[in-house]
Amino acid sequence: MAAQGLTREMLTSAALRIVDDDGLHALSMRRLGSELRVDPMAAYRHIPNKGTLLDEVVEAVMSEIDTDAVDASLPWQDRLRALAVSYLATLMAHPNAAPLIAERSLRGAGSLRVVEKALRIMTDAGAQLGDAIATIDAIGLLAAGIAQASSASVEQAEATAGKPLAGLPPEGFPLLAQAAAAGALSDGLADVFNFAIDAMIAALEAKSPSGHGPRVP
Amino acid sequence: MAAQGLTREMLTSAALRIVDDDGLHALSMRRLGSELRVDPMAAYRHIPNKGTLLDEVVEAVMSEIDTDAVDASLPWQDRLRALAVSYLATLMAHPNAAPLIAERSLRGAGSLRVVEKALRIMTDAGAQLGDAIATIDAIGLLAAGIAQASSASVEQAEATAGKPLAGLPPEGFPLLAQAAAAGALSDGLADVFNFAIDAMIAALEAKSPSGHGPRVP
DNA sequence: CTACTGATGTCTACGCTGTAGACAATAGTA
DNA sequence: TACTATTGTCTACAGCGTAGACATCAGTAG
């Protein structure tokens, strides 16, 4: 007997809000119900189980990416980079949902739309389909990992009392200790992303038969 | 009153066996206890909570990697590749544990040992520490993603009735449909890994001041 | 207007989870 | 022999996802 009736969209957006605000572990059917002032079981009139609710949340996040925002007149390298950056930005806007996305993307149309767009950018530039898939796979997983890592200190590492390496014996791991001290493991994650993207783009360029991007009309 | 007394190692190896055999979801404290013919609560005499048990499982898997197996006389590119390949091979030997490793590596000495080794290979070759970190981050996340994806069809996708893209409208996603038909999304995952590694290595080579690998004595 | 039908929200209950706290039994030492 | 620390057992609690019965309502056919 809520306002005027539950909808799938209300469930999805409430679920995403819970995840954003209080983390993935806070999203339970009971919590979802109480958020919508409704019996926990009411959700099951609109979704078959919690798994599909999670899929819908992933779809909601992935649909925030505007694949048409990349300027078509730019060279393919820049378009690919722009798409990847906006993908990462979207994940960073919902870092608590990143594990979800890493696990359950490639299912709904919203996610596939982004992948298809990236594939087209690369194959239009002359890349092999297999190499293009390798590139988005690597970039997608990396972005999810980065977004997840960026929120790990907030949600999860509070159980381990601080940074991942805090309290580690610096002797035996001199390079890691040095990197941790320089903040390269947490602050420099955007650099990680850029480095990987540039590496993949350069590899695609090297493999492409023509020296510069071909333009197939 | 079991055989002669529980140990942390018995718990860890039993936990890993459960994960390997029946998946991550099958690992509960009750199941762990029944596997060892012991009360579920007995485990808590040796570990503070389930989370540290999971950390131990990650450590056990990571410790299977033999970082000294890579021939030190090889050029750094080959050594890095060998290390990455043996990392992926280890993950593929425990695909059900891959999500665990993606989430909880960089905590115990066993994991850090591998990372430190990779860092040293790269920095010895003249790479910047930041670039080296970017490389292992990307490779590590990618390997975990690949291992996870390779088992996803077994453990998880049985709920979604088959391959990720099965039952998708091919129109609208022509490239993805083509890739799925060619098996590039499941069979070609090793190629994804090789492509990414080669790309990262090439990027490191390009950034390194000296054209070929320097040898610091 | 009545009676039926389908949709939607509610309630109770089951088996599962991690784990706190009391109790029992055993091993090692003074 | 008596005390103590360690380790396994038992019971119990709050939480989880969700199956199934029941209640309430909107819309339609007679």
Automatic annotation (TrEMBL), chains A, B:
Q: Which UniProt keywords apply?
A: DNA-binding, Transcription, Transcription regulation
The UniProt entry's coiled-coil ranges are: none
**Which residue ranges does the record assign to the HTH tetR-type domain?**
5-65
The entry lists its GO molecular-function terms as: DNA-binding transcription factor activity; transcription cis-regulatory region binding
InterPro entries tied to this protein: Homeodomain-like_sf (IPR009057), HTH-type_TetR-like_transc_reg (IPR050109), HTH_TetR (IPR001647), Repressor_TetR_C (IPR004111), Tet_transcr_reg_TetR-rel_C_sf (IPR036271)
- Set out the biological process GO terms recorded for this chain's protein: negative regulation of DNA-templated transcription
Q: Which residues bind DNA?
A: 28-47
Superkingdom to which the source organism belongs: Bacteria
Protein name per the record: TetR family transcriptional regulator
Q: Which organism is it from?
A: Cryobacterium cheniae
The top of its lineage is: Bacteria, Bacillati, Actinomycetota, Actinomycetes, Micrococcales
